[in-house]
Amino acid sequence: MTDITLVRLQPEAISDADKEAARRVFFGIVDGLGERGKKQWRRLWSNLMRLEPGEMLEIKTHQARIGWYHRKHMALEQALFESQEKFEDFESFRTWLKVGAGFVDWFPGPKGGVIPVPKSIGYAKLEQGDMEQFHSDAVSFLRTEHAGKTLWRHLSEPARIEMLETILASFGEW
């Protein structure tokens, strides 16, 4: 979910010609789905046009996840988990992957330091674009020497690279 805060900047009025041009563009290219959606979309634009200078409006958006992409990423995680030798349970592996990919919030720790707390990749909690970014960051992390040593300590570096790249290639990750 993305939160967007908008603020009216210019004190001058918007000309009727500019309003009409905006209507043609925004209602001609993008429109609400169904009668209810169309009414909500027009109400939003009407409210935007009536904002006073300095007045703010917050919009929450959600871009649905693409099912096949979600399944591909989950299958990749599962294949990596099954091939590695460090983690005994899947959730520990996933937590390690999220931290390594930097997909965390930082909070004060119990002894004054800062600790990473992994974010959720739940289907309803994470939009498609953010999921794609996490996936890309996770693959980049997996390609690090540290990740290879963690997952396959007994293998030589070339063998670790080959192991990882074989798994990634099977999911179209080049």
Written description of the protein model:
The strands form two sheets. The protein has a two-stranded antiparallel ribbon. The chain has helices spanning about 15-30, 35-50, 65-85, 90-100, 130-140, 145-150, 155-170; strands at about 1-5, 55-60, 105-110, 115-120. It is built from seven helices and four strands, in the order βααβααββααα. It has two domains: about 1-60, no CATH class; about 65-170, no CATH class. With about 170 residues, it is an alpha+beta fold. The model has no long low-confidence stretch (mean pLDDT about 90).
Short description:
With 174 residues, the protein is of the alpha+beta class. Helices cover 54% and strands 13% of the residues. The model has no long low-confidence stretch (mean pLDDT 91).
Could you give the topology of this structure?
Blueprint (H helix, E strand, L loop, with lengths): L1 E6 L8 H14 L4 H16 L6 E6 L5 H17 L6 H12 L2 E5 L5 E5 L9 H15 L2 H7 L5 H13 L5
Antiparallel strand pairs: 1-2, 3-4
Helix pairs in contact: 4-5, 6-7
